Amino acid sequence: MNLTQSLVTGVLFSLCLPAWADRATDEPITPISPAQVSNPELVELGKQLYFDPRLSRSGFISCNSCHNLSMGGTDNLPTSIGDHWQQGPINSPTVLNASMNLAQFWDGRAADLKAQAGGPIENPKEMASNHTLAVEVLRSIPEYRASFKARFGNEAITIDQVTTAIAAFEETLVTPNARFDQWLKGDDDALTEQEQSGYALFKEIGCTACHYGPAIGGKSFQKMGLIEAYQTNNPAQGRAGVTGKDADRFMFKVPTLRNIALTYPYFHDGAYWNLSEAVDVMARLQLGRQLNDDENARIVAFLKTLTGQQPDFKLPILPPSTPETPRPEPFPEN
Amino acid sequence: MNLTQSLVTGVLFSLCLPAWADRATDEPITPISPAQVSNPELVELGKQLYFDPRLSRSGFISCNSCHNLSMGGTDNLPTSIGDHWQQGPINSPTVLNASMNLAQFWDGRAADLKAQAGGPIENPKEMASNHTLAVEVLRSIPEYRASFKARFGNEAITIDQVTTAIAAFEETLVTPNARFDQWLKGDDDALTEQEQSGYALFKEIGCTACHYGPAIGGKSFQKMGLIEAYQTNNPAQGRAGVTGKDADRFMFKVPTLRNIALTYPYFHDGAYWNLSEAVDVMARLQLGRQLNDDENARIVAFLKTLTGQQPDFKLPILPPSTPETPRPEPFPEN
Ligand code: HEC
Ligand code: HEC
Ligand code: HEC
Ligand code: HEC
Ligand SMILES: [Ca+2]
Ligand SMILES: [Ca+2]
């Protein structure tokens, strides 16, 4: 869907929806289904890898450091802290429901979760390891060798297997059963009147042009600052960095609004901490519309109903290193 | 018990123990009991605080960063990484079974877990916050206010309540049911012959003089390098830093040997990664004894039976910050 189509669809929905319609199929936003896990052992392995700081050179930083599953799958910082406390270039997006994205990263430069997962391991500003070293670490640990053998039929352990396992775990990181989903599925009492009217307004003014689908985003690239330019010191150029086209400057993947109450600060530069301010920015910059306080509060109330069931699993226990394990290098002198 | 008494006790045990004795009561090492949780809600609150990086100024470092419960309650680094990637002064000891210690820290400068827990929050090299700020952060979060109110009868939130809750959680971090404990409780098949003979040797040569009790350590301060000096670049002076007495130089709290296979690298300077080397150092420096390869392997085999049941709970989910929450300061410019 392009923007005009989406805007039209959004408006049609809000004008034409009969009270008795099956909301779950007729609304521009659809409920999230719980993850279907076909290979639980692979998911378990991926979970261990996700929590394992030995995939970083320092031995200190894991995927969970920047996408903390106790905190909505983000670090709740404007930009991330990477190896040696280096400041990251951009806000860390949530991994929750990331499987629903049309592509990964703010500029969509990775096709899917598997393609994405290899990146941070060898990014010198993030985990600062490399694929050879990361695989060598895992190969030195008998429990990992056994797990990879059980999952992939051999003990070789390749980075391809590592990213397959991490992606399989990430695919389970969906957050069903938000109050909004309960309402979508027909429970009229799941939302207050204010929340319902916030949703109506969200559709009416055109937010659903960009924020639609089960993840309420993640399905298209759109210009940040469509009507009015976004002021930021962050040098990120968005999609143009991938396509090289000037027309793609400031085109970012529309972020999911699922769990938006947990994923502050907002926007690719993490400049806004307050959801109410982020909504105000969106209305003005993307839709040329100044919301009054009541309108803003209604939309914020609606957005807060999008917090779904958070990760619900036991803290993974990691198998210990061995004398053969390459040692972490937390400090230059070590 | 002083050293001589302990040595005698150790020797007596190994000479006099009849085969039919109740090992659980007659051995110098006793099994760990599962935690008795009298106030599960307080423990839950403490668990959240333990995992909450908002107790640090950067918003990035939690207790779990340096005492990672996925990794034996340590960071598996020689010395820790603190705020702004500062190098810590000493190896991070495990929090597992720390409740059994006669005092906390390598030099015992904190009387108990509660007295300890306030330290890292305001240590500029660790979490780099301060008690006022940490409490202000918690007070700004309605779910925390409600939890503290339910646990302590008021919403005030004091650092005393914070450390009470963290300590209550830490008290649950015991690791019962190691294979060695099963054997102690009478299951003869729980240990191999090599492991049993390793334990016999451990007692016979006098390791139990210092490593005894349920935690197999933690019950006394002893000189590191009793017979032969320990070579290290680490400036830590041990107990002398607390008492000011020259006689207390290099007196360190004897560490627990529970889960020793998980808590590498070893010694207060984290200089030894290999358990076999650590055992060799101990035998030479503390007992003036050069173990042969077979003896060393037997003791190491025994020590590896001390890995108990690791933390077994769900990843805690943290309540989100609010616009009132003081913002983290990960980088100077922010
Ligand atoms: C040092 C911080 C850091 C670490 C460590 C890190 N990430 Fe990220 N992650 C980020 C940042 C920042 C981005 C956004 C980068 C961009 O879009 O250019 C990102 C993007 C992502 C995305 C894309 C989400 C989206 O909606 O586009 C996924 C998925 C992801 N990371 C998963 C992982 C996994 C898996 C690991 C571990 C193998 C990991 N991350 C390690 C900071 C980190
Ligand atoms: C024309 C497309 C478009 C429209 C219309 C739009 N958005 Fe967005 N939205 C985006 C894009 C693109 C971003 C990411 C911008 C960035 O980070 O630079 C975004 C980001 C957001 C964020 C921050 C998400 C995060 O995790 O950082 C919120 C909240 C949000 N939008 C809400 C809304 C609301 C509410 C409306 C309607 C008032 C709306 N959006 C309308 C495209 C749109
Ligand atoms: C930046 C790393 C770091 C952080 C963060 C940290 N610790 Fe520690 N912890 C250490 C180090 C290093 C020591 C040993 C210091 C010493 O003995 O002088 C230690 C000692 C301890 C001890 C004593 C254990 C023993 O056997 O003596 C306990 C208990 C403990 N920490 C719990 C915590 C709690 C609870 C928090 C969070 C409030 C925390 N730590 C945060 C690194 C850290
Ligand atoms: C005289 C007291 C004493 C005796 C006897 C003793 N130890 Fe220790 N042990 C200590 C002290 C004190 C430390 C901490 C030293 C340090 O870190 O500087 C320690 C540390 C250790 C460690 C490393 C623990 C860690 O987590 O870093 C191991 C392993 C160990 N001892 C095993 C043994 C074995 C095996 C024997 C017998 C061969 C033994 N010890 C005999 C006092 C003793
Ligand atoms: Ca964010
Ligand atoms: Ca250690």
TrEMBL record, chains A, B:
Cofactor note (record): Binds 2 heme groups.
Signal peptide per UniProt: 1-21
Which cofactors, by name? heme
Binding residue positions for heme c 2: 207, 210-211, 282
After translation, the protein is modified as follows:
Binds 2 heme groups per subunit.
The yes or no answer to whether the keyword Secreted is present is no
The family database entries (SUPFAM superfamilies) matched by this protein are listed as: Cytochrome c (SSF46626)
Q: Which UniProt keywords apply?
A: Electron transport, Heme, Iron, Metal-binding, Oxidoreductase, Periplasm, Peroxidase, Signal, Transport
UniProt subcellular location: Periplasm
Q: Which residues are listed for heme c 1 binding in this entry?
A: 63, 66-67
Q: Where is the Cytochrome c domain?
A: 41-149, 193-307
- GO molecular function terms listed in the Swiss-Prot or TrEMBL record: cytochrome-c peroxidase activity; electron transfer activity; heme binding; metal ion binding
Coiled coil spans: none
Residue spans of biased composition, Pro residues class: 317-334
This protein's GO cellular component annotations are: periplasmic space
Q: Which Pfam families match?
A: CCP_MauG, Cytochrom_C
- Which PANTHER family does its entry note? CYTOCHROME C PEROXIDASE-RELATED
Q: What is this protein called?
A: Cytochrome C biogenesis protein CcsA
The species this protein was found in = Terasakiispira papahanaumokuakeensis
